[in-house]
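Troubleshooting entry. The earlier prediction with hypoxanthine gave an output that would not parse, so I re-checked the input for stray whitespace and re-submitted. Clean input:
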Amino acid sequence: MTVHIGAQPGDIAETILLPGDPYRAKWAADTFLSDVRLVNEVRGMLGFTGTWNGHRVTIQGSGMGMPSLSIYVNELIKDYGAKTLIRIGSCGGMQDNVAIRDVILAMTASTLSTPSSGIFRELNYAPCADWSLLRAAVQVAEAKGTTTHVGGIYSSDVFYDERPDLNEQMVRHNILGVEMEAAELYILAARHGCRALAVLTVSDHLITGDSLPSDQRETSFGDMVEIALNAAFT
Ligand code: HPA
């Protein structure tokens, strides 16, 4: 057990999917895994371990934002031996050619700050995805026929942004979408010799104002989980 995860040693798989929302962790585990066990419910941040095609997988909620994700990912890596960590989440589209329901594979994640900023001081570290996972995810998404974009995203510290000029700069510099967790996941994975990737579904669009109707959220979310699981074990 750790401060924030109640699982016993051995309860957590080396491969972990990380949705922000703990109820999405439950839905994904119930939908895609066999022999599912609840392994964490501390603070309601549900985590489940089961098997997918014979491989052990844990699906653990990360909460919203990088400070929350950082707590779970630090403990998963340092105390439970996680090796492959894939964020599955939603993002806001930032380019005209990116549409609601499309999947974004985040090659890099730009930020204003992360929980690791203090370590880097004046250095602008460039958080990037693990190449083997990214390559596998591209192949899986293309084989599924999912409209997929690969490129840079923006991991923001705020959902209600008082600095619209920051989003404008991100749009000008070809950033595909905005979310709030991937950059710190990439930094922690790099620091500890793990593999990480963010697979994101576009749930709303900052330019067009479109958003994914609630009745279509589950199906779109399912495509993303399938891409993540297949990429993890390619
Ligand atoms: N901003 C930040 N995070 C998000 C958004 C957004 O517009 N949409 C989904 N996650």
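This one parsed fine. The chain has one domain: 15-232.
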